[in-house]
Automatic annotation (TrEMBL):
Protein's UniProt keywords contain Transmembrane: yes
Record-given protein name: Protein NO VEIN C-terminal domain-containing protein
Record keywords, A-Z: Membrane, Transmembrane, Transmembrane helix
Keyword rRNA processing: no
Ranges annotated as spanning the membrane: 6-27, 156-178, 190-209, 221-238
Organism for this UniProt entry: Triangularia verruculosa
Disordered: region residues: 253-315
Biased segments, Polar residues type: 292-307
Length: 484
């Protein structure tokens, strides 16, 4: 996942730099070779002379040439360069976004640096008159049509290029700062930008045949620019597709896509109007590690207990789980002061061994994290004070089974529920004197711990089950509106 984001970011940076250079072509002599096309001025004079005079072309059109005219005109998006072969010091670029292509104006601007006052130079004035006379004898309407098409296509290409640069900036920001667990927007933006970059090349390439509209043999297209426009854009698109494939590959390999079996549906479907089979959906990507707020769903090393055995200190997930269970233990013991509430008797979870005062508990496969037999209605009253709706018949002689699911992140953070735990949910929902409650403890490591009580986990529409996977765990997400 990080590799795909880095791949997209790298190609975006390259594209951003290249597009800026392409946008600034012919603004200065060092980047003049990235011009869209160039025109051989001497060849242009030959073409014009032949078209007007219907001559064989053996003689030089000396009336159109001048020693101060450049060897080539280089056309870019932001300027035109006068290039004198063998005299690089005489190369001169005029900055002009979407440069003009009226030939007489180009001739005049090319000759302007050579004298202070063009009107005082009879030789230059004669050359300008010859260019004006020659151009005036050509097909005027056709020239105007070609000029208009060139102008329209050039503006469209420039506008799209600026749009691509803008999207490059957004794509780069998304690649660097968008959460790695949400790759879809980043990949979509990069793919769209790659397609837009390819589209940008269409009006740029289409404008070339209309550029320097009467120069047939004199015009030379820039292969380098076409490579930048199309192949560069194609590389951007390929990088986006590679990022998309890597994202999908990372998601598929983080967990297997297994369908819900009939056996699991029969266990989880239960009875009652809210019971429903679990949808077939894929597990969330593996890269969402606990540091970002998700309990890691790991393969139980001892299936008999349904939990990973504890070491001296416990794993990170066990520490998170312990903090949530400790919070609930103190909530009922200190805040609500439940009668006969004790860790040895009511804390029926192996995680209590992380507490120095309690002995290990190894029979949690058949128990929720907390088990409390309420004969006086104290638990029912405590739950009502916590805002939990308790059924009327649960006031007395009811056994409460409370399963704690803790995450350091937000309420919507995915957590794991084992197949065995869903078996207990289904079992106790059918018993009239038992209540199974799943309590979400989120932001468990923060100053403001949040709680969400779910009195019917299998039938509650606010829980979204996905799986089970190979490790016999469901990935469950809580649909939370309010968070603490």
């Amino acid at each position: 996942m990080r590799f795909s984001a880095g791949c997209i970011a790298l190609f975006t940076i390259v594209s951003l730099v290249v597009n800026f250079i392409l946008l600034l072509t012919c603004i200065s002599s060092p980047i003049k070779e990235l011009a869209l096309y160039r025109v051989n001025v001497t060849q242009l004079a030959h073409d014009l002379h032949n078209q007007v005079s219907n001559d064989t072309g053996d003689g030089l059109p000396t009336d159109l040439l001048h020693s101060n005219l450049p060897s080539y005109w280089y056309w870019g998006i932001s300027g035109i360069c006068d290039v004198h072969l063998g005299q690089p010091e005489r190369t001169h670029c005029r900055r002009e976004f979407l440069p003009k292509q009226h030939i007489l104006t180009l001739v005049e601007e090319s000759l302007r640096p050579s004298v202070d006052n063009i009107a005082q130079d009879n030789d230059i004035r004669r050359v300008l008159a010859s260019w004006n006379s020659t151009l005036g004898r050509l097909d005027g309407p056709d020239l105007h049509d070609r000029d208009a098409r060139f102008s329209t296509l050039s503006k469209a290409g420039a506008a799209l290029l600026i749009t691509v640069i803008t999207f490059d900036i957004f794509t780069l920001a998304a690649s660097l700062f968008w959460p790695t667990n949400k790759p879809t927007p980043r990949v979509f933006l990069s793919t769209f930008n790659g397609l837009l970059a390819i589209v940008t090349g269409a009006p740029v390439a289409a404008s070339m045949p209309h550029g320097m509209y009467v120069a047939i043999r004199a015009r030379e297209f820039s292969v380098i620019t076409l490579v930048i426009v199309f192949i560069g854009a194609a590389l951007r698109l390929v990088s986006s597709l590679v990022g998309c494939c890597l994202s999908c590959w990372g998601s598929d390999n983080s967990s297997s896509r297994l369908p819900v079996t009939r056996d699991s549906v029969s266990r989880l479907g239960g009875q009652g109007k809210k019971a429903r089979p679990l949808p077939r959906q894929r597990q969330l990507p593996e890269h969402r590690q606990p540091l970002k707020g998700q309990q890691q769903l790991s393969e139980p090393q001892h299936p008999s207990t349904g939990r990973t055995p504890l070491g001296n200190r416990g794993t990170y997930n066990e520490e998170v789980g312990y903090l949530g269970e400790k919070y609930i233990f103190e909530l009922f013991g200190k805040k609500h002061d439940l009668p006969n509430w004790s860790g040895e008797q009511n804390w029926t979870s192996s995680l209590r061994s992380l507490h120095d005062m309690f002995s290990p508990f190894d029979q949690d496969r058949d128990h929720a994290d907390f088990t409390y037999h309420d004969t006086a209605g104290a638990m029912a009253e405590a739950l009502r004070q916590e805002g939990v709706r308790v059924r009327q018949h649960c006031s007395t002689d009811t056994t409460y089974h409370i399963e704690v699911k803790s995450t350091p992140g937000r309420c919507e953070t995915v957590f794991g529920v084992s197949v065995n735990q869903t078996r207990l949910m289904n079992k106790y929902r059918r018993e009239s004197n038992s209540v199974y409650i799943l309590v979400r403890v989120f932001n468990v490591q923060g100053p403001n711990v949040g709680l969400r009580w779910l009195t019917d986990p299998l039938g509650d529409d606010d829980l979204e089950f996905r799986g089970p996977e190979k490790n016999r765990y469901y990935a469950v997400r809580t649909r939370c509106v309010l968070q603490v």
